[in-house]
Amino acid sequence: MSDLGRYSRQILFSGIGEEGQEKLLKSKVAIVGVGALGTVCANHLVRSGVGVIRLIDRDVVDLSNLQRQSLFSEEDVKLNLPKAVAAQKRLNRINSTVKVEAVIEDLNLDNAEDLIAGFDVIIDGTDNFMTRYLINDIAVKYGIPWVHGAAVSSRGMFAVIKPGVTPCYRCLFPEVPAGRGETCDTIGVLSPITDIIGSFQAMEVIKILVGTATNPNLEQIDIWDTSFFSMDISEGKNPSCPTCVNHQFDFLDRSSTLQESYSSLCGRDTVQIYFREKRERDLVKLGALLKRNGKVTGNQFLLRFSPNQDTSIVIFKDGRVLIHGTNDIVKAKSLYSKYIGN
Questions:
Q1: Is the same domain home to 29 and 62?
Q2: Interval 136-187: pLDDT, tens
Q3: Range of the domain at 330
Q4: How far from 327 is each of 79, 82, 106, 254, 271, CA to CA, in Å?
Q5: What is the pTM of this model?
Q6: CATH number of the domain that 49 lies in?
């Protein structure tokens, strides 16, 4: 049993108390994505005494992460540590009584149920829509609440999704957005917004775990304009939602047209990524964004983007993408999320 003295200031807060603290100590939280939002959440939850925290991330620490990903250091970059491992090492030094599990994997339909089913809460620390829809499928299928979060530029949002109580993610966003290429790597991100959104996510997780009411809104914040917008989503349930009403889990179903497909092209050091359901890209807008990060050439049919001399990304108008310079599907997915998003 942990020494409750370390949580004394938290226990003094009437909304938690000793009973709430005991609940936290017995809880299990899975964090998908250990980047800016994930590190903030993990930091708060480890300090708060959540019993088990699983960190799931496919990437390694990069120098550009240090501006906003609060658990990492220059030493982690030098050692080329996976984010999950670097975060685990730091969190173990903060609170050795919490069990922190590092999982160096890409969350996908093959492993998602094994990695996050059985946890009390799931935290969305991801940077792409497809993983969020996958989390939503798992959450609804197993009745696990999860906390959505997103941040880019100076803007951020968060929402609590409780299967059977609130609308699910697919109620709120019925169609997978085609995307505009707005990622942290194309339009930037300010560190304070990731701290703010991650802190709100952590607070909502604590509320869920101690059994108190959570925020019923989809909250949106812009810290550059100092603007706030709350949308009450409590009545937003779609009566014909494929996921939470019909229990049709398209993002766990290999035959679904909503799936992304990845294939390594034999002998070409290239990975192809495409949606089974075609989606048209605005190549002009996407090209303007990508120019900030490398060389862009193209025509009416495609764009060729080169972030460095070893990598070339070809984006076709129908959404299909070829990533030249690797045959590693996990690396290709990381490049796709980093520069293109969804």
A1: yes
A2: 999 999 999 999 999 999 999 999 999 999 999 999 999 887 654 577 877 8
A3: 259-339
A4: 24, 20, 15, 21, 6
A5: 0.85
A6: 3.40.50.720
